[in-house]
Amino acid sequence: MLVCVNLVPVTIGQPSRPPLEPASVATTVADLAGSRWTVEVLAESPSTNAVLAARARADVVEGLVVVADHQTAGRGRLDRVWVTPPRSALTFSVLLAPDRVPVARWPWLPLLAGVAVVEGVRRATGLGCALKWPNDVLLGDAKLAGILVERVERPGGAAAVVGVGLNVSTTSAELPVETATSLVLGGADEVDRAELLGHVLAALGEEYDAWRAAAGDATGRLRTSYLGVCDTVGRDVRVALPDGTTLAGRATGIDAEGRLEVRTDAGGTTVLGAGDVVHVRPRA
């Protein structure tokens, strides 16, 4: 008797990548982060930030989280493209509406989100991450996650869309650049992406509530938390500025508005609100 068998190719060493099940994700997030978050899981999306921005303009309430199992056209800072293989990353966006915080203090939101991702990764995996100013999440010297915060105008008042892209099981061959990494490459065991999301959202809620209660004054808890995980301060850096020029010097601190303070080679201090930082030498 002839038996026909459908052979499915298997890549040796390929990590397990189960899909996100909406009901399971909702339960896990509620258990770890409380009932404040409403999670919507998409099988595929060009950009979770774009989806959530559209929802925000329709005046949905704060706390909506859009997660994509596969993000096909994600964007990072400076309009960089961020794409990973299906189910290899945790890609999600969160809607926040800090209406009690003056707009002048909103620039702290990207830094706050960075602190939350670092803490969420620690809780989920035990791995210690750091931040390159303003909010690139590093594991060692390699980039683990990127964060993009966008302001959205809407009838009920402005809102912030916080987008996170975090490499979970991405292999070396799948990474777009050699300077990137993933949790699995960093030594984590197989990571449950739903649990990782729950831990990040729990940390985000804690930092956000404290920041909002202080009307956005970050000179207390938030700046202290940020400096505790920032790997830029104390290093020699080279910063590519938005106008195309480059600034070199020693990163000496973070000011009350979340800007990077750099003591230049000429001896003066320049305060930067934007720029692409390269760590030149180890922290002093």
Count of individual domains: 2
Give average pLDDT, whole number.
91
Instruction: Name the overall outline.
Output: globular
Per the CATH scheme, the topology name of the largest domain is BirA Bifunctional Protein, domain 2
Look at the structure and name the CATH superfamily of the largest domain.
Bira Bifunctional Protein, Domain 2
Q: Give the helices and strands as they follow along the chain.
A: HEHEEEEHEEEEHHEEEEE
Terminus-to-terminus distance: 74 Å
**Spatial order of the strands forming the largest sheet:** 1-2-5-9-8-7-6
Main pleated-sheet profile:
7 strands, mixed
User: Helix- and strand-based class?
Assistant: alpha+beta
**So what's the CATH class of the largest domain?**
Alpha Beta
Unreliable sequence segments = 1-12
Architecture of the largest domain in CATH?
A: 2-Layer Sandwich
* Gyration radius over CA: 20 Å
How many strand segments? Answer: 14
Number of helices: 5
Instruction: Determine the fraction of residues in helical runs and give it as a percent range.
Output: 10-25%
Percent of residues in beta strands? 25-35%
Describe this structure in words.
The chain is α+β, with helices and mostly antiparallel strands and 284 residues long. It folds into two domains: 22-228, BirA Bifunctional Protein, domain 2 (2-Layer Sandwich); 232-281, SH3 type barrels. It contains five helices and 14 strands. The chain has helices at 22-33, 48-57, 108-125, 193-213, 221-229, and strands spanning 38-42, 64-68, 74-75, 81-82, 89-96, 130-132, 136-139, 142-152, 159-167, 236-240, 246-254, 260-264, 269-272, 276-281. A hairpin with a 3-residue loop joins strand 6 (130-132) and strand 7 (136-139). The longest helix has 21 residues, at 193-213. The radius of gyration is 20 Å and the shape is globular.
